[in-house]
Specification:
It is a single chain. The chain is an alpha+beta fold. It is built from three helices and 15 strands. Helix 3 links the parallel strand 8 and strand 9. The relative contact order is 0.05. The mean pLDDT is 79.
């Protein structure tokens, strides 16, 4: 009997030694408290599978305030609430059942990514210095396309030409502006003030050169007085050109109510004066005489 007692005691001692060494190897997690539910935010507790949505289909449902999330987690939305992003239309909220991810560095620095349930829209926002910044929408290509539609905020085309068509732009979208108010380069788009339209007339020093170089324009500048007197007059006028030396010019003598014009067909004719009530008088026989 004594032999059996000794053997039992030896085996018990061996078992105690084994258990003791095993317990000695346990870490601090062996004495930690586990979460009481998957949304338990108590610091230091061991997380359950599915905690905050990780490792399971569970996501935390946010009903009242998306801004109130304070820890990193997955979440879902089941109603419109503060912080819920708007769709690209700008008015409708992301639909109930939309899910998202919250990432927290500190209470004042967080990020949220929300996936809309009813269409391919993703909203992103971040908190900087404790203030949530406006939502930004991530661009998603529609299936089979390498570009965004106009409704998604894109151009609707994968090439410049298709993009212009998608945006309903005309040919003026690719036209170059004139480089000056007397730029006659064909095909360029005119600016206000070009050729005297919408602003002061174009200043010229030679009315013949103005005809040759400008085409149609409102012009102004000193000119030799018509009639061969050689007197220089200050005038404004209209330059009309059909092509080559075919067209006309009209000159208004500033300050003296004089109006002259000349026409051209393979060369200018002489300036002629227009008679009017300011430079004629009616005689007794109803004929007009220049003053």
């Amino acid at each position: 009997m004594q032999g059996y007692v000794k053997e039992s005691a030896d085996r018990l001692r061996q078992l105690v030694d084994q258990v003791g060494s095993t317990l000695a190897g346990l870490g601090t997690a062996s004495t930690a408290t586990a979460q009481i539910h998957v949304d338990d935010e108590t610091p230091g507790r061991l997380q359950l599978t599915g905690a905050f949505g990780w490792g399971s289909q569970h996501v935390r449902t946010v009903v009242t305030d998306l801004n109130a999330l304070t820890v990193s987690q997955k979440f879902s939305i089941n109603a419109d609430a503060p912080g819920v992003p708007r769709q690209l239309s700008g008015t409708l909220p992301f639909a109930a059942g939309s899910t998202g991810i919250a990432l927290t560095w500190t209470a004042n620095h967080q990020q949220q990514l929300v996936f809309n349930r009813t269409n391919a829209q993703i909203a992103y926002r971040y908190k900087n210095g404790g203030v949530w910044q406006p939502d930004q929408h991530l661009a998603l290509y529609p299936a089979g396309q390498s570009f965004l539609s106009v409704a998604q905020g894109g151009t609707g085309g994968s090439t410049p030409a298709l993009a212009r068509a998608g945006l309903q732009l005309g040919t003026a979208a690719t036209a170059a502006l004139t480089a000056s108010n007397v730029d006659t380069t064909p095909g360029r788009a005119l600016k206000t003030g070009d050729f005297g339209v919408g602003s002061d007339a174009v200043l010229v020093t030679n009315w013949n050169d103005a005809y040759n170089n400008l085409g149609g324009a409102f012009i102004a500048g000193n000119a030799s007085s018509p009639g061969g007197t050689g007197v220089s007059i200050n005038a404004t006028g209209i330059n009309l050109r059909r092509g080559g030396l075919v067209g006309a010019q009209m000159m208004f003598y500033n300050g003296d109510n004089q109006l002259m014009f000349r026409t051209a067909f393979n060369g200018f004719g002489p300036w002629v004066k227009v008679y009017h009530t300011g430079n004629t008088t009616r005689m007794a026989d109803n004929t007009l005489r220049a003053i």
